[in-house]
Input
Amino acid sequence: MTNIQSMTGQTQASPTEELANISRGRGQRPKPAWRLMLPTPTPWLITGLILIGSIIIFGAVGPLLVGDPAAISNTGLSGPSADHWLGTTQTGQDVLAQLAHATRGSLQIGFLVGVLATLLSAFFGIYGAYIGGFADEAFSLLSNVFLVIPGLPLVIVISGFVPRESRGLWTIAVVLALTSWAASARVLRAQTLSVRNRDYVAASRVSGERAWRVIAVEILPNLLPVLASQFVFAVIAAILGEAGLSFLGLGASSSSTLGTMLFYAQNGFALPLGAWWWFLPPGLMIALFGMGLSLINFSIDEIINPKLKNARLVRKRARQAARIQKKAVTS
Amino acid sequence: MSADLSLEHAPVVTSRGPVLTVRNLSVVYETEHPVPAVRNANFQLGRGEILGLAGESGCGKTTLAYAINRLHQPPARISAGQVTFHDRDGQDIDLLALEDEALRRFRWSKLSMVFQGAMNALNPVRTIGDQLDDTLRAHHQSLRKAARQDRCAEVLTLVGVDPKRVRSYPHELSGGMRQRVMIAMAMLLEPQVMIMDEPTTALDVVVQRDILREIVRLKEELNFAVIFITHDLPLLLEISDRIAVMLRGEIVELDTAEALYRSAAHPYTRKLLASFPSLSGGRGAFIRSGEDSDFDRDNNFEEQP
Amino acid sequence: MTSVSVTNLTKDYALREGIRRRNLRAVDRVSFDLLPGKTVALVGESGSGKSTIAKLLTKMEKPSSGTVSVKLDDKTPVLGSVYRRHVQMVFQDPFASLNPFHSIEHHIARPLKIHGRPRTASETHQRVLEMLERVNLTPAQVIAAKRPHELSGGQRQRVAIARALAPGAQVLIADEPVSMLDVSIRLGVLNLLGRLQREDNLAVLYITHDLATARHFSDEILVLYRGRVVERGPSDDVILNPQHPYTQLLAQAAPDPERLGKVAASELPPDRDAIDNTVCFNHFSKRWVHMDEISADLSTLEHR
Output
C-alpha cells in the first residue's frame, strides 16, 4: 500500500529491481545483480544449510570412517552401546555403518533424480513456452498428462514391472524422474511465458539475437531462482519417493538407501520389538534432510518474491521498535 | 515561505472556510537509514475547493495522501504534525488522534479516496453492485436492502454509468467506466473531502476529459472538496482552484492556478511548466533546433536513480 | 541513407471466443513513408493499432497483407538479417526494456557484435563508451559497468536509445519513448532524439498518444483510429486545423495550459459512436478520401 517509489504506470518490477529499491531506500549503494540473487542469511537459511551440509558430509565421508555395514556378528538385536553407537540389527550389523552408507545411497539417487527431472522439466517447460505455437501446445499437453497420472502408483507399477535383477540405480532414477518432472514443467512454462513477454526479450530479438541465445542469455538468468527452487523440490520428492519404493521392496536392488534400511527394519519386526535405534535414525535422517531443503527453499522463495522479504523485514523492525520503546520506558 | 502562502494568500479558503487543515505534517520511512518522505507539509483545503497536488515520482504526494487518510503502513510513520478536519456541523476532528471505531466511522463518510489504478482497487471476482453495497453496509447498518440498492443506482447514475451495469464484473467494464465506478464508490456516503490519486493517468486522453468533466460537475452539484494528485500540471491548471507543487517531500509552491501559470515563483515549478509543450500556442519551451542546454545539463532536479 | 515505404499494411488477429472465431483487424490499409532526416508521428489512443504497426515494422509480427519495403539510397532493398541492422526500436517502458541481470555494457555490446565486423574486445568496449557519450551518459566508464536498476528512468531510456543506434540503425521506431518517464526529463530525452536524428540523418517514426509532443517533434502526423488513418498531413496543419471529428476530439481533450480556466461543466460530451473512420482527410491533397479508395491514394507519397 505504501509507495516507496510511486512510479505511475510502472509495470511489475522484477525481483532484482525490487530488492534494489529496498536497499536504495536504505540509502545504500545498490548491490550488483548477482549478489541480489543470493538469499540473505537468515536463521532459517543458516539452519537449513547446516542441516544439509552435515548430512552431505556424513553421506560423503561417513562410509569411509565407519565399519562394514554388511558384517554380521553374534550380537543380535542390541541397543546403542560403546561398540555400536546406534546399536545393531537383528543380524548384528552395525546400524551406524548402515546409516552412513544408506545416506550416501539416498543422496546419490536424490541428486541424480533431481538433475534428471529438472532437465526434463526445463526442456519441456522453457523451450516449449519460448517457441510457442504447436510445440508449446504439445509439450503442455504432455505435461498435463503426466501430471494427472498418479505418481506413486505409477512408480510402483513400473518398478514392479521391471524384473528385480535389472532394477538398478539408474532404472529407479529414470522412473522417478519420469514421474516427477511434470509439475515443475508447468511452473517453468508459466515463468517463461511471463518473461518472454517482457520488453527486454523483445528488444533482444529486435537486435537480431538468435533464438537459442535469447533463451540462454536473456530468459534463463531470470529463471534461475525458480529453477533452483524446483530442483530442491525434485530432490526432496526423489528421496521420499525412493524411500517409499524401497520400503515397499520395489527399490533399486543393488544399492542400500535409507528406504531399504526401513524395509529391513520393518521385515525384522523392529517396531514390535521396540528396536527404535534401527528405524528411528533413517526416518529422522529423511525428515531432517527434507526439512533442511525446505528451509533453503523458503529463502529462495524470498528471492523469487521479494514481497515476502519485505514482510519479514517489517516484522523484524516492528520487534526492534518495540524493544527500543520498552527500553525507553524502563530507563 | 510555503507556510505563509498556504494559510494567508488563499482567497478560496477564506471565502468558504477550511474543511481540512494540515500543519507541519512529516512522514518518515523507518528503514535502516530513515528516509523523510514528507517534510513539513502545510496547507488548508477550502470547502468545495479543488486543490491540485503536483509532483513527479518519489516526491511524496501519494505518501502525503495516505498519511492524511491514516492508510500508511509500516515502515511509514507520521513523525510530526497535525491534521484537523473541520466538520460541516462545526466540530473539529483531530485525524491523527482517531482510533479504531471512530476512525472507521470517520473514513469514507467524511473523507474518501479514489485510488490510483481502478483495475487494482476493484475486486475482480465480485460484481460492482456487491462492492458498492458492501461499502454502504459497512457504514449504514440500518439501511434496508431496497434503500441500499436505490442509493447504488443513484450514485451510478450520478457518475454517468448505466445503473443496469450494477451486476457487471469489473473486467466487463472499460477503463473509463471502472474509474467512474471508483468515483461513485467514493461518493456513496456524501463525503466532504475526496482525495483522488492519479485517477485518470492510465486512461486515454478523451476518456480522461470525460472523467474530469464529471468530477467538476459533481463537485459543483454536491459541493465536496477535492485534493487532486497528479503529475500532469496542465490538467491541474485547467481544473484546480489552487495548486501545490511537491519536490522531494516538500511543498515548494502553493498558489492559485492562474498565479502559478503566469508567474511561478519556484524554479522547479517553472521547469515543470516548461516541460509541457503547448498544443495550440507557439512552440513554447520546446526548441527543435537544438538540445536545450538547461534540460540536459541541469543537475539540480536530476532524478535520483 | 535508408528509407521505408509502408504500403497498405494490414494486420488481422484471429480471436477465439468459445467455438466461434472472430477476426480483429488491428491495422487496416495504412500507408506512409519514412524518409531520412524526417519524423513521422503516429498518434492514437490505446487500441488504435499504433503499437501493432511498430511490431510489424520491426518484424516481430508478420503483416496479413500489404508491404513494408526498406530501401537504401540507390534503391537496393534491405532484406534478411541486414534488415535488423537498419531498423531498430526504442521501447516504451524503460524499466522493462533492459534485462536486470546484465550490465549496460552487455546491452550495448551485443548489438555491436551481432551486426558489426568481428571486433576485438577492446574495440567493442571503446565503441560502447562512444555510444554512451553520444547519449550524454557520462562518465561512460562508470555507467557501462552498472546494472539497469542502478540507473534512473531517464538514464535507462538513453541506454535504450544507444542500444538501438549501436548497430548503425538508420530507421528508428520510437514507441512512446517518453510516456513512462518523469515529466521534467521528457523534453531532454526528446531533444536527444532530435539531435541524434540530425547528426545521423535518421528516419524516425514517433508513436505517441500525446498530440503536443507529436506536433513539436515531427514533420508529418498520421492520426489513427481503430486501425485506420483518419487524418494525415504536416504537423501544424493537422493540429491547428483538424478536419476529422476524431482529431478535433483529441485536440480538444488534451489539457492545454493556454486554455486556462475551469473545465466547463456544462460542455456536452461528444458522441464517440458517431466517429466515422471510413473517411480520411489528407492535408497534402486537401481531399477527403474514402477507405475503399485508400489503397490508391498514395498522393502524399509522391517521391515513389
Observations:
- The interface with chain A takes residues 58-60, 81, 84-85, 88-89, 91-93, 95-102, 110-111, 114-115, 147-150, 153, 160, 163, 167, 179-180 of chain C (CB under 8 Å).
